[in-house]
Amino acid sequence: MPDGTTGTGIGAAVKRVEDFRFLTGKGNYTDDINRPGQSYAYILRSPHAHAKITSIDSSAAKAAAGVLAVFTGEDMQVGSLPCGWQIHSKDGSPMLEPEHPPLAKGKVRYVGDQVAVVIADTYSQAKDAAESIVVNYEVLPAAVSMSDALTDKSLVHDDIGSNLCFDWEIGDEAAVDEAMSKAAHITKIDLVNNRLVPNAMEPRAAVGEFDAATGEYTLYTTSQNPHVIRLLMGAFVLSIPEHKLRVVAPDVGGGFGSKIYHYAEEAIVTWAAPKIGRPIKWVADRSEAFISDAHGRDQINHAELALDANGKFLALKVQTQANMGAYLSTFAPCVPTYLSATLLAGTYTTPAIHANVKAIFTNTVPVDAYRGAGRPESTYLIERIVDQAARETGIDKVEIRRRNFIPADAFPYQTPVALQYDSGDYEATLSSATKIADVAGFAARKAEAASRGKLRGMGYSTYLEACGIAPSAVVGSLGARAGLYESAEVRVHPTGSVTVFTGTHSHGQGHETTFAQLVSDRLGLPMENIEISHGDTNKVQFGMGTYGSRSLAVGGEALIRAVDKIIDKAKKIAAHVLEASADDIEFKDGNFTVAGTDRSMAFGEVALTAYVPHNFPHDELEPGLDEKAFYDPANFTYPGGCHICEVEIDPETGVTEVIKFTAVDDVGRVINPMIVEGQVHGGVAQGIGQALLEYAAYDDSGQLVTGSFMDYTMPRADNFPKFDVTTEGTLCTHNTLGVKGVGEVGAIGSPPAVINAVIDALWDRGVRDMSMPATPEKVWSALQAAE
Amino acid sequence: MYEFEHHKPASVADAASAMKGADDGKLLAGGQTMIPTLKQRLASPSDLVDLGGIAELKGISVSGGTVTIGAMTNHAAVAASADIKSALPALAELADHIGDAQVRNRGTIGGSVANNDPAADYPAACLALGATIHTSQRDIAADDFFTGLFETALEEDEIITKISFPVANKAAYVKFPNPASRYALVGVFVADGPAGTRVAVTGAGQDGVFRVPEMESALSGNFSADAIANVKVSADNLNADIHASADYRAHLITVMAKRAVAKI
Questions:
Q1: What ipTM was assigned to the predicted interfaces of this complex?
Q2: Which of A101, A580, A658, B136 measures 20 to 30 Å from B245, CA to CA?
Q3: How confident is the model over B90-128, as pLDDT tens digits?
Q4: Angle of CA points A644, A645, A646, to nearest 5°
Q5: Does B181 contact A709 at a Cβ distance shorter than 8 Å?
Q6: Chain A interface mutation, best of B42, B242, B245, B259, highest count of A Cβ atoms under 10 Å
């Protein structure tokens, strides 16, 4: 039962309060915002992966009907789009950080790179005029694959002299080599973590506006973190001080990481608005999204796992190539390093780990964090090589995991790759998942499938991730150029209703419900008396936004701390009115009571007293009831668990069907189980998408072959069975809520479970490896090759 | 899209004359290919002649062993037709698996056949069943109609009015959908009827829909899945793309053909 008497507190499956407006078409998305006098921008993009711009003639476009202005990189002399994280190579040198102009200057570096902007009365006029811009390109050889790029035959950025952005390492290489030399067995694996296109349902959009009377700029944008955009664009690109720049991220239709970053189009419409004296709207169409939203994943890994004669892991050595694309997107450098290599212990006691990561520029769309961001890559690596080791040593794949789990009594647990896990119980989640997945009945199901000519397989992933991003001091020492705390303000109005201002941003996660439940729980208020406000830098004090499953663990904790300040002050007010000591005031179910008496005040009466302070402790307190808190976490949070996938393969066609998917996730305390289940569903869908369906394919010339839904396989409902999703486990030890985060676990844990199941199904037919996505043709070809 | 002149004639004759009067006119049927093409600015017709207002182009009739479908009849109507389900269930089932519900409610048989997309479903049915394509000018046998990739025997300004299918005693269609677009990567329509024993393949051929004579002769003697299980189709002249190599498509043709025969 939920705490308290509201029925809407912590643990209650409250229906999402935001859904009414979303489901009835009443959401207010960026493209729904239309400002008086608004004009429209069309971005002319590079058709080439790599080319010198020898000339641009936009005279015809400027003269075309309705056109207000045409700007190119030469016109837009502003700062470079900044990177928010600096990595140092193992030799101590800083990463190579090329200039990233919002409009290309002299050279284009990927298909989709911005070449010019046309601004007109209507979108069609802008698009028509753009066709008359004559751009002369001298096409250059493109560095499309990472292996091509590493030869430096064709430099993506001539001025930095290399396509190698950084060459980074973590861990004790000598200890790893020592352990390898004594190992009874070494398992080796080569993996590709496929490139993905985020494809949020709402394409990116931006409206830029300038008020000549006040000198204030406003940017409405599809962002997961409006304050971050204000900081990056204001301070680094356009030199607009914060008090003259308002950034609004209204309803946003999905982000998955792709809407964290500061994009060129935001800077372009904001910069150009005063130049033409009118607001400017830009909206991406779907084809444009494919070639302009930052892509995800795209790593190549080689890993070696050393084991002793009993199957205990002795050491793990990893070499990774990580594709950065053509420019450094906002968080790109931290994804393969501090969000990935630091997770290489996984759920295991591997005592020595070393990873080397080479980050590489290529003539492709910039690559950055995408749901899971680095953690899916390390999880895929660990859970694949563990399965492989089990096969090679003849130890059962569940048993080998059990032998190497960090035991439940070993927390806090210091890994050899920087992180200290605070809590977890991997045996418990494995054990539960095994029961739910009916592992015991698998052999019979496999035999039944075989009688129909089908191949069944079962795959495991006993994963762990680090989220709740992040302790500022830690990430600062690792190269973050920002702090990663969060803030909240709880404004109690005179009649006792509450508005919460949170620095996190909800773009599908249901914060307006979950955060309101926290307030409902703590203050004993009904949900309808609580409003959650987010996404406007002129309303919200500050915030770092939503990504890395941080909103509840960091933003929720900030909110709780602000609520506690409210309760504290309210007790003092009640004590004054009730003529008691504040220490004797108890707060329960929305009432302040003098302990042991029937003298009490309702929350609303205290609020009114705070704003109509006729009888008020003026010597001790200020009037009003409005408190803020900034919260910087002491550690990351460490959700983990067990995913078990059961597949059935049709060997005649190579089609893989996911028959059953079981997820038992330890996400800490659950505030709203329905929302948590939905988050896991979405993440698992994206994980199965990565494992079986999705990949961004470039041809040799750098054209994105999978540039539309005709070729890029987005998962659909009929690709999935009904998922069995449950949560159980331990509490986070370093926040008062005990929450860990749930936004990414589905996407992190599931891909290796799926591929391990595919390999398991194909094993008896002689197939020994499978890469993502395991498309029908790939599976069929593997079966042919194995015959 | 670019600007164009929009016409909505009420008769086939008016549609034909609107086309004659246009510099570069295009016919608009259900628009499931044309509208996305226009939106992506891949076509810039001077005039669009919308066939949606011509009552005589809609409707389904079954008589004398022939199923006749008006060119502007949408896929959902074919799929739901009790008459077709009874006379030629394979055709109703084919229509029921074209695209998604939105496509089936807009897309038309005439539009699909006239467009002759190499991955469309209807051309396989036309060829396998020996259909006749009736136009504003003449009747064309399906055998003579599909002339290549997006190419047909239709003249400029010639408008498909209806398509008639002789009812076959045996007919089935099975497709392997492209995982992304869900168009036919390989679709095989097998039939045994007035036009003989036929196997027509869509989705796989570089020149669009084609027949497989080796399978047809194997099935003529023994209409069973086993009869064609070992008939291999050459990968020459088959499509290859990121979803399927020519070899994989060739393999799938045999698998889909077997499954189609087994369904009957």
A1: 0.96
A2: A658
A3: 999 999 999 999 999 999 999 999 999 999 999 999 999
A4: 125
A5: yes
A6: B242
